[in-house]
Structures
1.
Amino acid sequence: MSRISIIIPIYNEAKHICNLLRHLIENSSSENIADIIIVDGGSTDNSQKIVSSFKNVSLLNSEKGRAVQMNFGTKHATGDILYFLHADSYPPQNFDEFIINEINNNNLAGCFKMKFDTNHLWLKLASWFTKFSWKTCRGGDQSQFITKTLFNDIGGYNEVFTIYEDNDLISKLYERNQFVVIQEWLTTSARRYNANGMWKLQLHYWSIHLQKRFGVSPKKLNQYYCKYVNVKNL
């Protein structure tokens, strides 16, 4: 029987992590969930205290960086399916059953289609495109499920990437023709768009995508992200 290990990297997510953990527990079956693993990258708020209040959730500490944190979490995962999730992304009801069904149909990796928690027309349009299987429509906010065997076979997340690690992994899966988009809605926060400005942030995201495509180093991508995108206390 396939079981899922949910792995969530966090850094100062006290505003969101409690609601997410409750959502995951209420919208899945305990029979399908092997473990829920929170990997903290050195939070200075109440994130760890909140996570520790959940009896069936494991709290790990690692160096900061999503790729590093997620790889670290997999080393402690007991499930044969890994499900990577951001702290502000909420998968649909019965997400565990949808994932296991895909695995049983030999779809060994994929995500959900995604919508934002806003009625902004541009983000509604961007959300609509996530239902398609095109690689350009992919991103980490849509979450990522993958069998542990396949994850290990492709070498996990590339820790050279401080950002864009999700897209790097997804590209490897597309090269193997091993990716499916589950046609159920995951809801993610528009908080970064709200904080940075809708069009300003979108231009920066497009810039990062183009820079990566033209061979800009992971270090320079991160420098750009920290300068123009990253906003504290969201």
2.
Amino acid sequence: MKKSDTKARIVNAAWQLFYKQGYENTTIDEIVEASGTSKGSFYHYFEGKDALPASLSYLFDEKYEELEKTMDPGLSPIEKLVFMNQELFLMIENTVSVDILSRLLASQLVSSSDRSLLDAGRTYYKLLRRITIEGQEQGLFRKEFTTNDITKAYAMFERALMYDWCLSSGSYSLSQYSGELLPAFLKNFC
């Protein structure tokens, strides 16, 4: 088994348990058992349970890899961005508690080293850049905006919506609200 498979199993098991029974009620022993790994493996990848909130971006990237494979290539770049956003936000609503997403966002603010949400090497940013370049090549985006400008603005828009959803204790549908706002936001770049 590859190392990345072991880490993925730990992360997936942890997030399933966090969603079912809450972060505070989940133990490392339960994560190890659910992942079919060992405590040694757990501690090889994570200093402790508090290191796991930052791994949520890993699950997001798994979702983006899945979406990239299933996304209709006939969609316009704008439609692709809206599709990706809707699918991720539906996943968040259905599998990630507000508490856990809040912990991820908070971990990014206080960590001086692991700012996984900003990692330009993530699948998320690679996919956003490819779609943005496609839009630029098709003349959909205004020329004064660079690939980096559009990618950064889109990512900030998504993080802002997730942050507000957490502040509002998940009192509204994240995917529905984003579905209403994102097309208008993207028009600023067209």
3.
Amino acid sequence: MKVVLLQDIKGSGKKGELINVSDGYARNFLFPRKLAKQADAQALNELKNAAESRQFKIDTDTAKAKENAAMLEGKTLKLTGKAGKGGKLFGSVTSKEIAAGLKKEFNIDVDKRKIVLETDIKSFGTFNAEVKLYTGISANVKVMVQEEGN
């Protein structure tokens, strides 16, 4: 009997999969526990529509990420920081501050965990950062740290 899984089932499959199981397993275990439903025309149509919806979301997210990557590539983000002793940066510039700067200057939301720095930014100057926007799509940004008041 062909069934569409409504939840992940260890040893059988993942949610949304169409699998072939024995009649007894389906009637006595899967259906009473609402873990699956019979694969009739309506269930197969819902399964197809859900797959198309997921693919559409992936396509739109990828297009948006490529657009953002093209806009960010090679740009310089200017940040300021307080100067400590000897003209060194007081503290450090974190990926959280870089994400906030990207949101403010370019209006692009980036998760702070998706910003990869070559080294910790603990001094003034220009540093390279890689911004991962989507799977396989990233942009290289320069981060220029200046002393406040300059």
